[in-house]
Request: fold
Amino acid sequence: MNSPGIFPTFFLSGFECSTFDWKDRGRRDLSAELQHYSHADEDYRMLAGLGIGVAREGIPWPLVDRGNGDYDFSLIDPLLDAQRRNRVLPIWDLCHYGYPDGLDPWSDAFVQRFAAYARAAAAHVARHAHHGPLCFTPINEPTFWGYMGGEWGWCAPRGRTADDRRRWTAQLATADIAAVKAIRADHPDARMVHIDPLIWVVPPRDRPNLADEAHRESYDDAYLAWDIISGQKRPELGGSGEIIDILGFNNYSFGQMEYTGGGKPNLPLEPGDDRIRPLCSLIEEAWAKYRRPCIIAETSGLYGGRVDWLNDLMNEALAAVKRGVDLHGICLFPAVDMTDWNTGEWLHMGLADVEPLPSGALMRKPFLPYLEALHRWQRRLKRVTALDDDPFDTAVDLGDVREAAERISATPDADWH
Reply:
């Protein structure tokens, strides 16, 4: 029996679009650094040719919001044009770690201004959208931004304590809820994807007394934004299951960590560490807490490890499907490589790598082993390997995904490559 999913393809992708006020470097626009605005048609054409019909994309709030209700969305018009030409459905990040200069992040005005901007952004993309539904991620990774902007001091608002971090995460969740309500006042059918990392934190082997702190990070702090947006905490802020809508789980190898005591990032567990948990279990736990449709919203290996990473990820995701998780897609992120935020070095984690040319242009170079592995999985799940002229005529049949999970006998495995 056909079981339609939310999206036209099971595999998604996306583009790095951070606009943070970064340490001592000031405002950055990672889409510009990637030359994505000028390469938009090429970037989206690659996705269509790979059978990927959905892409996470960003609207740079600090750059389009001029204040006093004045917005200039011309920066994203090349992206809208490329999406239309190549028939790729966007999930729009409305705030990817950046807010306008001069705006007090701790004020009620922050929440109000973000909601007004979100409504205007939704109106703009709705006027130019080639296909529905309208999909948004109001604030990307509010819990992770809580850490890097609220406790580690990497970017604005440059907090330095756990209290700052929790307060900042709660402020972001409050703004997120307000934005969802503002958008749905005009577009009641708009879908929302709420994204944060899946993590697992353990105490050091020689410090079992830190088990409570590690457990708190894994189960309280990691879920704080989702808890508020879903209404499980701070219900007076207006969260609910309809507000949180779709869950997005980000997963990278460094998401399983040893607790270091706070104030700085935890230490990633090394491959083979017996404290690593199967990703399937993390997916199942997060999904079971909220019982909402979900996607893997970001995932990738590095360099030559991208193929093994995809194979492991697919096994874990399908094992979660066998356990009843309502999984609607997997986002291979990024589509085109991104740089380390600190060093500027290319990370070699995209569907395509980047080769800087003497002219300053950034040439896209698809990483063929990764693409071949993607196509193998598309065929195993009975998915297309290239978009046709009307990729939106039918949604993904999730029955095919469940059947594939049973056919390949997907089982959880903590021994990641």
